[in-house]
Amino acid sequence: MSIQEATPDHRAAEQAIEVAGENLEFRQLVIEDAAPTGAQITHAAGFTAAQQATVLHFLPDGELEEIRPNQNVDLGKGRQFVVVETDRLYILTINGERFEWPSRLISGAVLRKLGKVAPEDELLLDCVDQPDRLIGPRDLVDLGKGGIEAFISRKPTWKLNVQGVLLTLHQPTIVVRQALLDAGFNPDQGWQIFLIVKNQPKRAVTLTDTVDLRTPGIEKLRLTPTGVNNGEPAPKPRRDFDVLEVDEKYLDALGCFWETVVDSGHRWLLIHNYRVPAGYDQQMVTLALLIPTTYPGAEIDMFYTNPKLTLRSGQPIDRTQVSAIICGTPFNGWSRHRSGAAPWKPAIDNVVTHLALVESAIAKEVGQ
Q1: Most buried of the four, 4, 141, 259, 329, by CB within 10 Å?
Q2: 208 Rama sector, left if φ>0, alpha if ψ -120 to 50, beta otherwise
Q3: Is the dihedral angle over the CA atoms 324, 327, 328, 332 positive or is it negative?
Q4: Are 165 and 183 in contact (CB under 8 A)?
Q5: Mean pLDDT value across the chain
Q6: Taking the alpha carbons of 327, 328, 332, 333 in that order, is the dihedral positive or negative?
Q7: Would you say residue 62 has pLDDT above 90?
Q8: pLDDT at 136 over 70
Q9: Which of 16-20, 99-103, 267-271 comes out lowest in average pLDDT?
Q10: pLDDT single digits (tens) 312-363
C-alpha cells in the first residue's frame, strides 16, 4: 500500500486584496485563492509573466516583504500589496550613507531599518526648494523620480511662542517657569500667564504647570503684568445673578475682574480688562455677554465691547453695527452666530464655550 501526501487546497471564497502600483494609490482587487502566490497577484494586477513585476507585501507595521512568484502569501498578515515593474537597483542615502534598493518603492519602516534610525528620531526626505518631508513608518516613497533620494534623521523638536519669543525645544513638555526663563522673562516679576490653544478659550496657568506641546493647537504663552494700585481695596464686583459653577470657575481663572448686572430687564455678564490680540487700536476692552433668563436652555448669542474695537489697518469690521447701552455706557455689538452645523447644545454649551467663539472671532479679524 502506498501513502500519498495531501496537496494543500487553497481554494476558498473570493478574497479581497488591495494593490498599488507606481502611483502609490491602492485599488481593491478580488482573487480566488485564500493563499495566493506572487504570480497570481501580479496577474490580478494586470501584469504578464514577461514583465517580471516585483510583488511587495505591505505589512501593517510598514515593512515591505518581497514575495516570490511561486511563494504563497498569508493574507492574515495583511491584504495590501505593491506591484511594480523593475529591472534595476535604486540608489538612496540615509544620513550620507549610500544604499541600493531593488524596488522603485520603499517604506518609512524599511528606511529606518536600513539606516539604523533610532526609534525616537524623526525621518525626513531631504527636499530642495521646499520644506523637508516627514516620513512615517507606512509612508511610501517613489525612488524612480530621477536623482538620488537623500534621507536624514534628527531628534524631534517642538516650538513654543512665549510672548513673542519663539523657543525650540527637544522635549515635548516644559514647566511654565522654565519656559519664561528660557525666553528671557523673570518669572518672579509677577505675571498673569495664559495658555493659548487654537479654537479654545485662553486658559490661565501657573508657574508650576507643565505644558505638553504634543497637544494639538497649542499656539503660545501670553504674559500680562499683574495690575498695580496704590493700596486701595479692590472694588466689590456686582453679582446680580448667578452663572453656572463651571462658568464661575473659568472666569475666576481668567484673572479678569468680572461681574453680573441686570439693567433694564436684561442680564449682562461683564468681563473687564479683557485683552485682545495685536492688530487692534485697543489692547483691552470690557466684554459683555447677554445672558438669557433661561440660560443654559437658551443660547448666548453675539457679544459686545466697550470701547468699540477698531483695526489699526483702518479696515472696517463686518457685521458690527449693533449697539447697546449697559448701565449708561455704550457698547458695540458683533453679530456672530453659531452655524446650523454647530448649534447650541444646552447640555454642553455655556459661557466658556461661547467665549471660545468670541476669542476666535476677534482673532480672525487680525489674521490669527
Answers
A1: 141
A2: alpha
A3: negative
A4: yes
A5: 86
A6: positive
A7: no
A8: yes
A9: 99-103
A10: 888 999 999 899 999 989 999 999 888 777 789 999 899 998 998 898 899 9
Give 263-301 pLDDT, tens digit per residue: 999 999 999 888 888 888 888 889 999 999 999 999 999
Q: Do the domains at 15-85 and 90-154 have one common CATH topology?
A: yes
Q: Are strands 149-154 and 90-94 parallel, antiparallel or unpaired?
A: parallel
pLDDT band at residue 12, thresholds of 50, 70 and 90? low
Helices (H), the chain: 38-44, 108-115, 176-182, 245-254, 351-364
Integer Cα distance of 23 and 126 in angstroms: 21
Are the beta carbons of 202 and 223 closer than 8 angstroms?
A: no
Domain 90-154 architecture: Roll (3.10)
Q: What is the 3-state secondary structure (H, E, C) of 305-367?
A: EECCCCECCCCCCCCCCEEEEECCEEEEEECCCCCCCCCCCCCCCCHHHHHHHHHHHHHHCCC
**Chain centroid, CA 317 distance in Å:** 29
Grid cell in block for residue 315: 479696515
d(CA 248, CA 241): 12
What would the mean pLDDT of 209-229 be, rounded to a whole number?
Answer: 80
309 or 256, which is more confident: 309
Tell me phi and psi for residue 239, to 5 degrees.
-130, 75
Under a CB-based contact definition with an 8 Å cutoff, are residues 368 and 282 in contact?
no
What is this structure's pTM?
0.42
15-85 fold: Ubiquitin-like (UB roll) (3.10.20)
Domain residue ranges in the chain: 15-85, 90-154, 158-225, 245-364
DSSP 265-294: TEEEEEEEEEE--BTBS-SEEEEEEE--TT
Q: How far is residue 65's CA from residue 87's CA, in Å, rounded to a whole number?
A: 18
Backbone angles phi, psi at 40, to 5 degrees: -65, -35
Q: Give the Cα separation of 276 and 281 in Å (integer).
A: 10
Q: Residue 362, class by beta-carbon neighbours within 10 Å (0-12 exposed, 13-18 middle, 19+ buried)?
A: buried
